[in-house]
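@here heads up, posting the sequence + SMILES for the flavin mononucleotide run so it's all in one place. Ping me if the SMILES looks off, I pulled it from an old spreadsheet.
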Amino acid sequence: MDKPKVVLGVSGGIAAYKACELLRRLTESGHDVRVVPTASALHFVGAATWSALSGHPVATEVWDDVHEVLHVRIGQHADLVVVAPATADMLAKAAHGLADDLLTNTLLTARCPVVFAPAMHTEMWEHPATQENVATLRRRGAVVIEPAVGRLTGVDTGKGRLPDPVEIFEVCRRVLARGVREPDLAGRHVVISAGGTREPLDPVRFLGNRSSGKQGYALARTAAARGARVTLVAANTSGLADPAGVDVVPVGTAVQLREAVLKAAADADAVVMAAAVADFRPAAYAPGKIKKKDDQDPDPIALVRNPDILAEISADRARPGQVIVGFAAETDDVLANGRKKLARKGCDLLVVNEVGERKTFGSEENEAVVLAADGSEIPVPHGPKEALADTVWDLVAARLS
Ligand SMILES: Cc1cc2nc3c(=O)[nH]c(=O)nc-3n(C[C@H](O)[C@H](O)[C@H](O)COP(=O)(O)O)c2cc1C
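bot reply: prediction finished. Complex structure tokens:
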């Protein structure tokens, strides 16, 4: 089988060196990558590096290798074009259809999915001109990854940093897997909760659960690759990398998770509650470490109920037509308990899966049945968590349209 053909466009930003890592990931995972740098990009990383890492010649201008008509051929044959980093200048040119070098010509001739990973100073990113260009590109079906927040060139910090190349690679992988289909969540804001809450007993101990957050992160990554603006409310997921283009809000307890979800849900089109939220928390928090008393049984731990966030946001939707999805982890009578829970919570969809010490938690795979409020049941066979995530988004997108 032919390898998928990827064009890696590199424009002239300081983050151009990070595209070398993206290039490596793409080639090592079996993609045939042609790098098309702009003339400015070559000030940062030379043609020799791109050529050696990709195994292809590197051209910048339409006047290079004219006999091969590269200005149309590269774009026509691509399965994916990813521009990383995308400068403010490149976004403007792409939005306006300029074609004064090989990369801009390629963007006009490509009929495959296009991903832009912008990187620039915060002022350039926030400028209305850039924001309008980004909106234009998204309206036309391109996936434009939101820049990360962090250290920029020099001493500045803020929004505008290129997301981790590993995470840009993840977006590319998912966009390629979906093929030429439109990013069907473009223009939508989705909120996802992930991980497991921890309810503190004292400064060193907590009541927690085994949820790793991987299903919620798979939901976030797939939604971003389908064009959504994503807020990920992440409870105790410190081992997981922030997905590219996703706004991650870290929380600890059920009460904090509720606050963050309610705030983000105010303008959301869909909320997916994948986090394992503790039903109860210790009635009292001991400000000092609870001590073991010799020859005495420990005091029982008194618990109080936590708020039922899924029921609350389902009953009191922040927007008409907002789609609410819950997750139910069950250890027995899985479907019967799931149906009861769907009725009790009032959400639109409930993803029901069986959990146990060696099932689901922490694993890369999942198996579930999605129960819908209209009575339908959608079985999702054993497979990667991102396949279940895509099924959830298919069902959400159908309800949103
Ligand atoms: C040191 C340096 C760093 C730069 N970093 C960025 C950047 O991160 N993002 C950006 O949009 N422009 C950046 N620029 C400005 C671009 O290089 C400039 O707009 C150039 O015209 C872009 O050309 P291109 O879009 O054809 O690659 C930088 C310029 C210099 C000199």
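MO: The first helix runs from residue 18 to 28.
MO: One more: The CA atoms of residues 28 and 150 lie 28 Å apart.
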